[in-house]
Design brief:
302 residues, 7 helices, elongated
């Protein structure tokens, strides 16, 4: 496994045609090492969000190459890109993007559906475990409108981590938060980075660059300055990622071991048993009713 996780070469993304063409990115080059915490800054319209969208496989460039973990993404189908994104990349947005009709537990468990987890109980156990890390287990059944801004962002971070991705992309994660909530969110991201995750974060707040190992200033679709504050040799060791598993990687020290059943898991099992008993009882009643109906029809025929 190489030390480079993302490699962009001569990347260009433009909008419009002819004289109306506008470049969000132009001849953009970037190499990201495993375990880096990169802060991307720059004025509005310089291409920061476009860059994150391309790295997150939500958009594609007009020209240039993008290699993700040694694999070119240029000719991947939309389905394969979605599968790759669900396993390798966690996304955090400024406006949280929580589904308003789903409770916190369902919002956090959602990425596991796309990463291939078919067991609903395992998805809920994984979501429950990651929410405990962020001290949100008491709000699992709250709807998003019942949460504060800081709580919503922590739920969004939990959702980005539940499938154990190696790369976290954050677009202004503190932009809508007060200073106290922003500090809590940044401390969580710091802890995630120290476990070996690669983080690329867009921000307008220069005071947050103290968390970064590398600060990139963008201007007019390119890199203006690129400063590393931590040597590559001193970056955190990459996490061991196990894709396609509903339960979290052992990187979360406060998770229960696989051999132990959490109270949540026991509740799910009990619920399944109760449902099966009710189904059997209903089936027996239906068969008796069918027999009575058949006998009645037989008498009427005679």
């Amino acid at each position: 496994m190489g030390n480079t996780v993302i490699e962009l070469k001569s990347l260009s993304r433009s909008y419009g045609y002819g004289e109306g063409t506008t470049y969000a990115l132009k001849d953009f080059d970037l190499e990201v090492k495993r375990g880096e915490f990169i802060m991307i800054m720059g004025p509005s319209g310089c291409g920061k969000t476009t860059l994150l969208n391309i790295i997150g496989l939500l958009d594609r460039p007009n020209f240039g190459s993008y290699v993700l973990d040694g694999e070119s993404v240029a000719r991947l189908s939309a389905r394969k890109k979605a599968n790759l994104r669900s396993k390798k990349i966690g996304l955090i947005f400024q406006d949280f993007n929580l589904i308003p009709t789903l409770n916190v537990l369902d919002n956090v468990a959602l990425p596991l559906i796309y990463s291939g987890s078919k067991s609903k109980s395992k998805r809920y156990i994984a979501a429950d475990n990651i929410l405990k890390r962020f001290h949100l287990e008491k709000r699992e059944y709250f709807l998003p409108f019942q949460l504060s801004g800081g709580q919503k962002q922590r739920v969004a971070i939990a959702r980005s981590l539940v499938a154990s991705p190696e790369i976290i992309l954050a677009d202004e994660p503190t932009g809508n938060l007060d200073s106290r909530s922003a500090h809590i969110v940044m401390e969580e991201l710091k802890a995630i980075h120290e476990e070996g995750n690669t983080i690329i974060m867009v921000t307008h707040n220069p005071s947050l660059t103290t968390y970064a190992t590398r600060v990139i200033h963008m201007l007019d679709g390119g890199i203006d300055t690129d400063i590393k504050t931590v040597a590559d040799a001193d970056l955190p060791q990459p996490i061991s990622v196990h894709f396609g598993r509903a339960n979290l990687d052992r990187k979360n020290s406060d998770l229960a071991p696989e051999s132990e059943s959490t109270s949540f898991e026991i509740d799910i099992k009990e619920e399944i048993k109760t449902t099966k008993k009710k189904t059997k009882k209903s089936t027996r009643k239906l068969k008796k009713l069918q027999k009575k109906t058949a006998k009645k029809k037989k008498k009427e025929t005679l």
